Amino acid sequence: MPKKFKGENSKAAVARARKAAQKEEEDRRKQAELEDEYWKDDDKHIQRKQQRKEEREKKRLEALQRKKEAAALLEAETSAIKAGKIVNELPLEENINRVVDAEGEARSVDDAISLLSIKEPELDKHPERRMKAAFQEYEEKNLPRLKAENPNLRLSQLKQMLKKDWMKSPENPMNQRHLAYNIKK
């Protein structure tokens, strides 16, 4: 017959103690999960509200980051521009009020006015007299261009377009500066 043990097997005791510790740890973990589950707020509206709040905060931080980057780029650009600043100075016009006129000296008001007045080219008093000839010249010059642009229009339509252009043209004597026929000098 084999020998009887009076005590307990040390290896088995260690294994049982280890298993008991593992079971106790597992029970503690399950208890913590149950407690967390109990206190967890599982209302869908509150979860959605919390999610939207997190998204808003994330967007706000991203916008702030973009603003900082834009400000840094702007600062870099302005510093680069300031470094290579080019100054275009416009020539100053001479003040004609301070100029001493060497042409002559005025003793009367009429002489002073004629002396100070700017000499302008002679203005046409009767531009309507030159209109027919000027229109014919304008028509000869621009009718081929209009025909090329609009080949499928009739001649009357082309002439209407030409007349419309003529009314706005600077070549029209009525659009040029002129004096009234009865003005006094």
From TrEMBL:
<feature type="region of interest" description="Disordered">
    <location>
        <begin position="1"/>
        <end position="61"/>
    </location>
</feature>
<dbReference type="InterPro" id="IPR054414">
    <property type="entry name" value="Ccdc124/Oxs1_C"/>
</dbReference>
<feature type="domain" description="Coiled-coil">
    <location>
        <begin position="95"/>
        <end position="176"/>
    </location>
</feature>
<dbReference type="InterPro" id="IPR010422">
    <property type="entry name" value="Ccdc124/Oxs1"/>
</dbReference>
<dbReference type="GO" id="GO:0006366">
    <property type="term" value="P:transcription by RNA polymerase II"/>
</dbReference>
<dbReference type="GO" id="GO:0005634">
    <property type="term" value="C:nucleus"/>
</dbReference>
<feature type="compositionally biased region" description="Basic and acidic residues">
    <location>
        <begin position="21"/>
        <end position="33"/>
    </location>
</feature>
<keyword id="KW-0175">Coiled coil</keyword>
<dbReference type="GO" id="GO:0003713">
    <property type="term" value="F:transcription coactivator activity"/>
</dbReference>
<protein>
    <recommendedName>
        <fullName>Coiled-coil domain-containing protein</fullName>
    </recommendedName>
</protein>
<comment type="similarity">
    <text>Belongs to the CCDC124 family.</text>
</comment>
<dbReference type="GO" id="GO:0030496">
    <property type="term" value="C:midbody"/>
</dbReference>
<feature type="compositionally biased region" description="Basic and acidic residues">
    <location>
        <begin position="52"/>
        <end position="61"/>
    </location>
</feature>
<dbReference type="Pfam" id="PF06244">
    <property type="entry name" value="Ccdc124"/>
</dbReference>
